[in-house]
């Protein structure tokens, strides 16, 4: 009795998951700027990037990799990049990601450190969990370029 | 030999010593860099995973240039049994995980059956488990194909009288497993979904607590295990696990296990896991259900 109930629950859960996942994919196909709006548009994203830069400066795991950058330009480029990725009306005008990171030898430790700081910066700006996750999902395709894999 | 196998007594004390170290400020300096809750928790066999199933994730927060470790105390209380587990593990470069665990199964009501039926005076069974897990390739968060690991669990039963009396063939055995884990970002209502699948080759009866091999089957069999969980946020993971089991002994039917768990990871240093577990029939006592609680410290 308990066994068949458990099995039924598992099957129902699997079906529900399947529907939810396919539903999410359908949503993605429509061009939408809801993530951009949830991040607070370009000014909200600029605040996140600013907080991210402060966190990077204090983080001994990665701050050396950022030595000598033009902070204002980096801030504006990354803001444009996140704005564009989230569906906003911006265009990233910086250099190609693979090219930029080519000789930096970025380790998984450093990649994790940056991801952590981005999450903390979003939390400081009260970005909802779902929006944080959606932004990270859109950043994931850059992982092989940044790690130069 | 006896002296050697008494050594794991140190296993019981080690976590307390390490918990002491955790509290000292010098050890607080650096913890691993992996993202919160991506080290899983300590399973009942010591390997990083959920509660009942090892996952492809390696324990602690060590990333590719770091060392890390975990200590854990766990307890499962089902209708007629209590299982206590003390475990510890280290992780080098998020590449190799080495773990030890001591399991103590209090037989509670089975002790009477054993005394009346077999004339055996035994109220607990102890088992030591030495585990190694290697991350073969991939990263659970960042690789589109997920993270894949392979592991061994060498298990040694310390009280073989009872398992032998009910038909187990060996007092030790080695489980081998291959496991894949993947986090799908923003997959369920914007929440991250963690999925794990494990296949295990084993001869163990009730995970080894009732010995290895038996009269119905004495060879290795492949068992399927799985787990899935949703991160409500980065501190809370809600999920379920399933573990298929062999059925080697005619003495008593062995059932598959499953659990529903919630893990709270307030900080990289500390994790609490609570679960409802269903172990099915265990050594003639039917429908063993109950609660599971596990505390884990990481450094």
Automatic annotation (TrEMBL), chain A:
Domain of life: Bacteria
CDD domains: TrHb1_N
UniProtKB keywords: Heme, Iron, Metal-binding, Signal, Transport
InterPro entries: Globin-like_sf, Globin/Proto, Hemoglobin_trunc
SUPFAM superfamilies reported in the protein's UniProt record: Globin-like
GO molecular function terms attached to this record: heme binding; metal ion binding; oxygen binding
Keyword check for Lipid metabolism: no
Residues holding heme: 101
Pfam families, sorted: Bac_globin
Leader sequence segment: 1-22
Name the UniProt record assigns to this protein: Group 1 truncated hemoglobin
Origin organism lineage: Bacteria, Pseudomonadati, Pseudomonadota, Gammaproteobacteria, Pseudomonadales
UniProtKB/TrEMBL annotation, chain B:
UniProt name for this protein: DUF3034 domain-containing protein
Origin species: marine sediment metagenome
Origin organism lineage: unclassified sequences, metagenomes, ecological metagenomes
């Amino acid at each position: 009795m308990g066994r068949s109930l458990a099995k039924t629950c598992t099957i129902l859960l699997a079906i529900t998951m399947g529907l939810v996942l396919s539903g999410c994919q359908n949503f993605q196909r429509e061009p939408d700027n809801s993530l951009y709006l949830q991040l607070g548009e370009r000014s909200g994203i600029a605040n996140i990037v600013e907080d991210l830069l402060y966190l990077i400066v204090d983080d001994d795991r990665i701050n050396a990799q950022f030595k000598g950058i033009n902070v204002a330009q980096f801030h504006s480029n990354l803001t444009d990049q996140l704005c564009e990725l989230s569906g906003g009306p911006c265009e990233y005008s910086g250099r190609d990601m693979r090219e930029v990171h080519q000789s930096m030898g970025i380790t998984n430790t450093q990649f994790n450190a940056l991801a952590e700081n981005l999450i903390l910066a979003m939390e400081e700006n009260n970005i909802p969990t779902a929006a944080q996750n959606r932004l990270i999902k859109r950043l994931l395709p850059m992982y092989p370029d940044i790690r130069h894999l | 030999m006896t002296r050697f196998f008494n050594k794991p007594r140190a296993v019981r004390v080690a976590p307390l010593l390490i918990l002491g170290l955790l509290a000292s400020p010098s050890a607080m300096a650096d913890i691993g860099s992996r993202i919160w809750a991506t080290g899983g928790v300590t399973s009942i066999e010591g390997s990083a995973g959920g509660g009942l199933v090892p996952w492809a994730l390696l324990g602690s927060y060590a990333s590719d240039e770091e060392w890390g470790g975990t200590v854990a105390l766990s307890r499962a209380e089902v209708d007629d049994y209590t299982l206590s587990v003390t475990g510890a593990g280290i992780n080098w470069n998020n590449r190799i995980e080495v773990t030890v665990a001591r399991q103590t199964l209090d037989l509670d009501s089975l002790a009477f059956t054993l005394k009346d039926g077999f004339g055996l005076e035994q109220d607990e069974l102890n088992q030591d488990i030495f585990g190694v897990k290697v991350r073969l390739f991939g990263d659970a968060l960042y690789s589109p194909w997920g993270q894949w690991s392979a592991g061994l669990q060498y298990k040694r039963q310390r009280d073989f009288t009872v398992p032998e009396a009910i038909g187990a063939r060996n007092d030790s055995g080695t489980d081998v497993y291959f496991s894949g884990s993947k986090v799908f970002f923003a997959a369920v209502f914007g929440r991250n979904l963690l999925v794990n699948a494990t296949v295990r080759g084993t001869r163990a009866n009730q995970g080894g607590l009732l010995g290895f091999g038996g009269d119905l089957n004495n060879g290795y069999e492949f068992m399927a295990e799985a787990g899935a969980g949703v991160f409500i946020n980065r501190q809370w993971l809600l999920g379920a696990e399933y573990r298929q089991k062999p059925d080697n002994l005619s003495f008593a039917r062995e059932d598959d296990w499953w659990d529903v768990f919630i893990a709270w990871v307030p900080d990289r240093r500390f994790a609490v896991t609570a679960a409802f577990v269903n172990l099915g029939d265990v050594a003639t006592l039917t429908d063993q259900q109950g609660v599971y609680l596990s505390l884990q410290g990481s450094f």
